[in-house]
Amino acid sequence: MEDLDTLVLRTACGWQADGLPVVLVTVARTWGSSPRPPGSLMAINADGATVGSVSGGCIEDDLIERIRSGGIHAACPALAPTVQRYGITADEAHRFGLPCGGTIELVLEPVSPHSRLDELLAACEQRRSVERILDLATGGVELRDGRRDGVPHLDERRLTTYLGPQFRIIVIGAGDLSRFLCQIALGLGFEVIVCDPRIERHAAWSLPGVEISREMPDDLILRLKPDARTAVVALTHDPKLDDLALIDALRSDAFYVAAIGSRRNTSLRRERLGTHFGLTEAELASLHGPAGLYIGSKTPAEIALSIMAELVAVKNGVALPAQARVDTGKVGQSTPLETGCGI
């Protein structure tokens, strides 16, 4: 499953190739509470079809109605990018379903060959981060290699946005827990890769949208070179499969590296990785283990939810309190999972 930005770009490129006029809408700035953050994308074609979103729905309805009633010219009278603000007054905020005090500023851009959406889409597919500079007077676009994330910047002359590759998760081990974890990750828009060299594990394991690798996990990690939009989660309980992959992942740019296991096994793993493989204290400190948040998980589905909740929190830069971690949350608790996953 594609992330939403990639889906918007791919759909807009398809409409453009079919000869349909298209407007690309970008959330440039917000004030107060807003349903969608700056940088969010939406595309609308001349028939009123949409992909993506910029609010809870009412702003989209207004834009669609304007385009349906007057064509692309109604949204962009000079067929050049225009800036549209919603929610300036309390009445408008109420009308367009914005939270109390919320204001949203959009850039509406008629899509043309100058928009270079095909190049932008290709960059995302190649896991390249791109800075896109839109000239508000001409609609011309400049693309540069840039940082993976950034807050859009809008001034009188240009809109600068940042687009990075799809978030990706590499799951080591094909099992029931992996299946539930992958299903959640797919729903969240992650690219998902499952790695397990054990042939017997593949016979009954398949999930649409998930790439399966039979490589040794450490070989896969070295080949893919996890970037800052990649997470690595080890789920096999087998040090022969997990440890080398974890070492390479912890020395990569991966934003989240985790492994399941009881508190005792997690402690032994850290000792093993430090003593025998020379990982530093800083590298060991970045390993999330036992993986997940403490929510009293008992089933594979609940454990998968726990792990993905922690992963998303790290992705979004949320500082979690110590008591939210499995190792801390389990203190004083009695659960049969202590000899298993430790979630």
Automatic annotation (TrEMBL):
Residue ranges of every copy of the XdhC- CoxI domain listed in the record: 15-68
Cleaved signal peptide residues: none
Residue span(s) of domain XdhC Rossmann: 169-311
Pfam families cross-referenced by the UniProt entry: XdhC_C, XdhC_CoxI
Top-rank lineage group of the source organism: Bacteria
This protein's name: Xanthine dehydrogenase accessory factor
